[in-house]
Amino acid sequence: MKRSSSILINKENIDSIAIGGFDGMHIAHQELFNNLSQNGAIISIETGYASLTPKNYRQEYSRFPIFYYDLQNIKELNGIEFIKLLKSDFKNLKKIVVGFDFCFGKNRACKVDDLKKVFDGEVVIISEIKLDNFPVHSRYIREFLLNGQIEQANRFLGKEYKIYGKHIIGQGIGKKEFVATINLSIDEFLLPQNGVYISKTIVDDCEYNSISFLGHRQTTDGNFAVETHILNVDNLEVKDNIVQIKFIKQIRENKKFDSFLELKNEILNDINIAKKYFY
Ligand SMILES: Cc1cc2nc3c(=O)[nH]c(=O)nc-3n(C[C@H](O)[C@H](O)[C@H](O)COP(=O)(O)O)c2cc1C
Ligand SMILES: Nc1ncnc2c1ncn2[C@@H]1O[C@H](COP(=O)(O)OP(=O)(O)OP(=O)(O)O)[C@@H](O)[C@H]1O
């Protein structure tokens, strides 16, 4: 994972910034970044709600350094004070890029027209970016994921939705009764709707085709699990504690089976569907 590189950047060199929450770093956010100059930077206002690309996972989706501002620390500033803060943090600031609906200052009282009044440099306002006539926003991408509409979410994201998890020990019956899986514990990321997904899994810097399951293991211990089975690889040894899953397509919902044999047959069927997709 590319951690924020902003600490290594000399703020004096930054001459343009894009401002927003930027959860997801989706295609509309990228359009804002396209309007930055060579020495641009991203100002990410942290509300604590980011779940598509939580704070420490955002940098990998842009070459521009990200500087984080905690909303709690700036929410009492009025519009003029907020811009003053940015100008004092970035002494060479000449351009600000925001979207059509950008609000700033205490109680979100200031709008884009106010920005033009209080900032004495160039202000670039990006009109609402849409895909198939549908506005692109993080909140809609979250809804797509929660409905299992991964392909739609991925189009809006401009990339495959990816989560990071910690490798944990499972029940230990997968390999014996079904197929081997890597079990994960997920903290900060939004999980798509429960079910079975064609996916890719990144383990120890290698990306593998996979099939992933999210949900309560209704057929075995009933516990909630995030599990991924790597296709065509037996006995993969996982060294790194952190494993990534990219979601591609939901193939079915989670189900309760009357016997282990029925679950096993369904899992083998899922694997065949995934193999047809990949190979
Ligand atoms: C592709 C796939 C599909 C699965 N589908 C279901 C399911 O529909 N219902 C269910 O109860 N468990 C499902 N599971 C979870 C299995 O119950 C689980 O892998 C098994 O209990 C082994 O768990 P373990 O890895 O913790 O040992 C699925 C697992 C995989 C890999
Ligand atoms: N569809 C869009 N078109 C143009 N600008 C956008 C669009 N979505 C967001 N922006 C701009 O990107 C910046 C970041 O916005 P923000 O983090 O609120 O994204 P969002 O996708 O609208 O999120 P949410 O759905 O949670 O409100 C802001 O300057 C905002 O105006």
UniProtKB/TrEMBL annotation:
<keyword id="KW-0547">Nucleotide-binding</keyword>
<keyword id="KW-0808">Transferase</keyword>
<dbReference type="Pfam" id="PF01687">
    <property type="entry name" value="Flavokinase"/>
</dbReference>
<comment type="pathway">
    <text>Cofactor biosynthesis; FMN biosynthesis; FMN from riboflavin (ATP route): step 1/1.</text>
</comment>
<dbReference type="GO" id="GO:0005524">
    <property type="term" value="F:ATP binding"/>
</dbReference>
<dbReference type="InterPro" id="IPR002606">
    <property type="entry name" value="Riboflavin_kinase_bac"/>
</dbReference>
<dbReference type="InterPro" id="IPR023465">
    <property type="entry name" value="Riboflavin_kinase_dom_sf"/>
</dbReference>
<keyword id="KW-0548">Nucleotidyltransferase</keyword>
<keyword id="KW-0418">Kinase</keyword>
<keyword id="KW-0067">ATP-binding</keyword>
<keyword id="KW-0274">FAD</keyword>
<dbReference type="InterPro" id="IPR014729">
    <property type="entry name" value="Rossmann-like_a/b/a_fold"/>
</dbReference>
<feature type="domain" description="Riboflavin kinase">
    <location>
        <begin position="156"/>
        <end position="279"/>
    </location>
</feature>
<dbReference type="GO" id="GO:0006747">
    <property type="term" value="P:FAD biosynthetic process"/>
</dbReference>
<protein>
    <recommendedName>
        <fullName>Riboflavin biosynthesis protein</fullName>
        <ecNumber>2.7.1.26</ecNumber>
        <ecNumber>2.7.7.2</ecNumber>
    </recommendedName>
</protein>
<dbReference type="InterPro" id="IPR015865">
    <property type="entry name" value="Riboflavin_kinase_bac/euk"/>
</dbReference>
<dbReference type="GO" id="GO:0003919">
    <property type="term" value="F:FMN adenylyltransferase activity"/>
</dbReference>
<comment type="pathway">
    <text>Cofactor biosynthesis; FAD biosynthesis; FAD from FMN: step 1/1.</text>
</comment>
<dbReference type="InterPro" id="IPR023468">
    <property type="entry name" value="Riboflavin_kinase"/>
</dbReference>
<comment type="similarity">
    <text>Belongs to the ribF family.</text>
</comment>
<comment type="function">
    <text>Catalyzes the phosphorylation of riboflavin to FMN followed by the adenylation of FMN to FAD.</text>
</comment>
<keyword id="KW-0285">Flavoprotein</keyword>
<dbReference type="Pfam" id="PF06574">
    <property type="entry name" value="FAD_syn"/>
</dbReference>
<keyword id="KW-0288">FMN</keyword>
<dbReference type="GO" id="GO:0008531">
    <property type="term" value="F:riboflavin kinase activity"/>
</dbReference>
<dbReference type="InterPro" id="IPR015864">
    <property type="entry name" value="FAD_synthase"/>
</dbReference>
<keyword id="KW-0511">Multifunctional enzyme</keyword>
<dbReference type="GO" id="GO:0009398">
    <property type="term" value="P:FMN biosynthetic process"/>
</dbReference>
<dbReference type="GO" id="GO:0009231">
    <property type="term" value="P:riboflavin biosynthetic process"/>
</dbReference>
